[in-house]
Amino acid sequence: MKFFSRFTHLIIAAVLVVSCQQEDIFDIPYSLGAEENQMLTTLLSDVESGTMSMVSITQLKDFRVSGEAVEITSDLVMKGYVTSSDSTGNFYKEIYVQDDPTSPTDAIRLLINVTDSYNMFNLGREIYINLKGLYIGEYRTGDGVISIGSLDVGNDRLTQISEALTKKHVLRSNDTADLTPVTVQFSQISDEHVGMMVEVSQVSVVAAQVGLPYVDPDDSFDTQRTLEACEGFGKSTFILETSAYANFKQNLLPSGTGTVRGIVSKTYDGDSLVLMLNSIDDVNLTGEACSLLNIDDFEKVLDETFDNVVDNTNFDYTGWINYAEVGGELWTEQFYSGNGYVEFSGFRTGDDVNIGWLVTPPFDLSGATNAYINFKLAQHHLDDEVNNTLEVFLSTDFDGSNVAGATWEKINVPVPGEEAPWYAFQDVGLVDVSSYSGSLYVAFKYVGSGNDTSLDGGYFVDDVLFLKQ
């Protein structure tokens, strides 16, 4: 009986230990504890009463001062949805959060001194961050990844929020949303996608790296492999970065073609954009090799190289619209080293604000099965890519004259940022516009200033191409 009693106690103890491990480590706690629930209820009540104010990720980023860690001293709250997971070890003491589960417009990184955070902050989890007392800035100075964290005293940069403060400042709701990745091409991925979950199709591993492990055994921190994808008439490449602590580091890179889903991030020095996996299950390369388009099968509706420009004059090509929404500056014609292009620069305009539009002639999509646009962009003297911007828009209801009266849809193309070399043109890749009909207009919108030297950078546009089949 004594033996039976002791044996029974051992079994009960073992069951209790396993039960605790199952709850704490493996089960995602969808129900909130009473204390956490009350904290979130109070927080949302304060927002409802106006005691605290809700801000978007984009609004929060506006508090950032380049190169500095800025304390949030106001009673502000930010909502977001978790896009990254440390369940496989590929992310460490960080969470990426985007502003919408299906149609995100912005994302940010949250630094927390918590491991196995996926147990609390699972993919798609809706979270609320009490920002007062936290900081916004960069973890690795100059890497360009805007983050929320605590202050690393003495270094004027961010560090992880302690576990105790995380419990007070980062509150999860009962809701977990199904994330819909943003469908992009490699050539379209830009700084605006950092922190977002994206998916790219027609992807394969470059031939020289097929069969290699995700992480080189000699790498102590991470390994960068190269992916490629068919994009119209050629292939584009992108970096896949994997941590040496990922539990799939020894898995071999597959052959075949298919889709890859991941989180956009940056290399340690911030020089390059990379894709990071939540799980090896997000790699589905089981199909046949993709096929490239043949440009000879397409009609060139517009092939504007701007080589007939008159240097340093206001741009006035027939069929194009050059419109100053704010300020007196217009897009100008430029010619340098045998190449013509158009430019908008706020330098010495004398205007507090400059907003200038350049609109193409119409792209007649009648009878088109496949249609694409393509162009090249460059920047110079850009100091603040957040507020000194170039955006690209499409419209099907523009009447050819009233820019302000048209409906403009912004498209995501890789616009050269502060880190891009000055004057170096970058091809944005083929932009598929096959889903549109009628007459399609493309607009380039510049925003800057002639009196704020941090906002007087310039942008170039060249080689605008319309193709249809």
What can you tell me about this protein's structure?
- By secondary structure, this protein is mostly beta strands.
- The protein has three domains: 36-176, OB fold (Dihydrolipoamide Acetyltransferase, E2P); 182-287, Nucleic acid-binding proteins (OB fold (Dihydrolipoamide Acetyltransferase, E2P), Beta Barrel), CATH 2.40.50.140; 295-468, Jelly Rolls (Sandwich).
- It is built from four helices and 31 strands.
- Strands 1, 2, 3, 4, 5, 6, 7, 8, 9 and 10 form a ten-stranded mixed beta sheet that branches. Strands 18, 19, 21, 22, 25, 28, 29 and 31 form an eight-stranded antiparallel beta sheet that branches. Strands 20, 23, 24, 26, 27 and 30 form a six-stranded antiparallel beta sheet that branches.
- The longest helix has 25 residues, at 2-26.
